[in-house]
Amino acid sequence: MGTLHSDREYDVTRTDEQWREQLSPQEYAVLRQAGTERPFTGEYTDTKTVGTYACRACGAELFTSDTKFESHCGWPSFYSPLAGESVEYIEDRSLPGRPRVEVRCATCGSHLGHVFEGEGYATPTDLRYCINSISLTLRPAE
Question: 110 and 101 in contact (C-beta within 8 Å)?
């Protein structure tokens, strides 16, 4: 697990030291080093609060509660991002023999989780954005 690097220029950029100052060690491990929180431990796994989920690192709005669904996988699941440009996709070959698609915040490049297709959930997109709670901040609707 290394620090995230991309050839892309992000709207929000900080040095590694600045990210470490801003984020807790657990947040840094997931958001900036592509770690994963343990299943069924995240604060938003079962949350039904109406609102918008933003990137915990930069505050960019990423998902809404309208697209959150119960997948029983241990992490918050969404069937669509807020806007097509709010997230970016990176091929992830970190697990042998099982390529995955990593989901990152398009504003700061922080790791959010992974997206899976064709799992048979009764959602409009047949996609499951499996996102770490620690990567998100829920902004409840007023």
Answer: no
Known catalytic residue at 130? yes
What's the rounded mean pLDDT across residues 99-114? 95
pLDDT tens digit sequence for 50-90:
999 999 999 999 999 999 999 999 999 999 998 778 999 99
**Domain coverage including residue 112:** 16-140
Domain count, the chain: 1
**8 is a domain residue:** no
3-state DSSP percent of the chain in helix, strand and coil, to 5: 15, 30, 55
Q: Which residue, among 68, 32, 33, has the nearest Cα to 53 in the 3D structure?
A: 68
CA 133 to chain centre: 8
Residue 20 within a domain: yes
Q: Whole-prediction pTM value?
A: 0.91
Q: What is the C-alpha to C-alpha distance for residues 138 and 12, in angstroms, rounded to an integer? A: 20
- φ/ψ of 19, rounded to 5, equals -60, -45
Span 37-45, mean pLDDT? Answer: 96
Q: Given 55, 105, 108, 130, which residue is catalytic?
A: 130
CA distance 57 to 45: 19
Check residue 2 and give its pLDDT: 46
